Amino acid sequence: MAATGENSGSARSRAVAEVVELVSTLIRFDTSNTGDLATTKGERECAEWVARQLEDAGYTTEYVESGAPGRGNVFARLPGADPSRGALLLHGHLDVVPAQAADWSVHPFSGAVQDGYVWGRGAIDMKDMVGMMLAVARQFKIEGTVPPRDLVFAFLADEENGGKWGSHWLVEHRPDLFEGITEAVGEVGGFSLTVPRPDGGERRLYLVETAEKGLGWMRLRAKARAGHGSFLHEDNAVTILAAAVARLGTHRFPLVLSDSVAEFLAAVSEESGLEFDPGSPDIEGTLAKLGSISRIIGATLRDTANPTMLNAGYKANVIPQTAEAVVDCRVIPGRQAAFEREVDELIGPDVEREWITKLDSYETTFDGHLVDAMNDAILAHDPQGRTVPYMLSGGTDAKAFAHLGIRCFGFAPLRLPPGLDFAALFHGVDERVPVDALEFGTEVLEHFLLHS
């Protein structure tokens, strides 16, 4: 059903006109998530500001703190023309990873607009999408636009810590907030990847996230007899742990081609002429020809287990009784049991392991009305574009919503310059988003929501 509104033609220009300032202001809220409740800050202030922007446009909002003081979340619902249809959830997280100002060209919480970019921590992860959501939501309400179905806008806390004090808490304790929602759209999808064509031209592929690897943070622990550092020690906890960590960190897990990755590689091959043979020993070398995005795609071909933290000892001349490590594990859909068996073989019987955080993988198919609406929205604003599915090597709040039976996609549209190292900007220094990409994304998002 077509969307209606008092002046739907002007809604786009209104949203585009304010999206850059909205994103810049969002960045100026320091919502750094340290993973520690005592030191994570800024989410409440940012969430309250978001609520005011929505309320000024006419929405009734609900502010919810997800299990701890200051972990602010904001919800707003826009009724659609057909209330019998399942609602669509648009979700974005307000928190960001920390940043060291001394390392940056501009202050990471300045929201500076210069050289054609909006700069700052969260510019692409994911205050760009939050700003686009907010701009379009405001314009729909102000212009009296009625979308085809109910839209639920959710601005969330704690995604950068796995959503324990955000989406997962909300799903467990406030499932009523998601009542009637059947599909969801969130981050790390809809961005363009420019690939060369055999005829000398180029094609922009817009990557829609249809899958993401499981996320698990694992603690390893070795125990042995404590003693004097000058004695001979055959069972040193540090040595036992270090050997296990080295085996795990250098291990290469088997290549597994999921449906989402296979479809992505087939599309890239069709457009570029590159051959991605799963049986080739140099498939990663072929992927490297795609540029910086190859780091994300390459990580979806196999499980990974990367040691990230070590802790042992309290004095130079004391052999400690215990040594611990933390490992960041990302697991391909359907591989969890096999992955854990492989890990146990690698670390051996003298090392204990436990999950600090364990979030499931997710995968859906690249089909249906919502996918068609994404493709149509891209083509309406980039006739040379093409949407393709892909798997995210990381994780998003979609992992929580999938537990409610909600079908989830990543679609935060951005048309990016071919030479921009987009992958390096995630959690990187000098994170920034092109101004014209934000404006393009706002137009695409509006078109998508009007036909979803």
Automatic annotation (TrEMBL):
The keyword Membrane does not apply. The keyword Hydrolase applies. Residues 210-338 form the Peptidase M20 dimerisation domain. PROSITE patterns: ARGE_DAPE_CPG2_1. Its cofactor is Zn(2+). InterPro entries: ArgE/DapE_CS, Bact_exopeptidase_dim_dom, Peptidase_M20, Peptidase_M20_dimer, Peptidase_M20A. Transmembrane segments: none annotated. It comes from the Bacteria. Coiled coil: none annotated. Keywords: Hydrolase, Metal-binding, Zinc. Belongs to the peptidase M20A family. This is M20/M25/M40 family metallo-hydrolase.
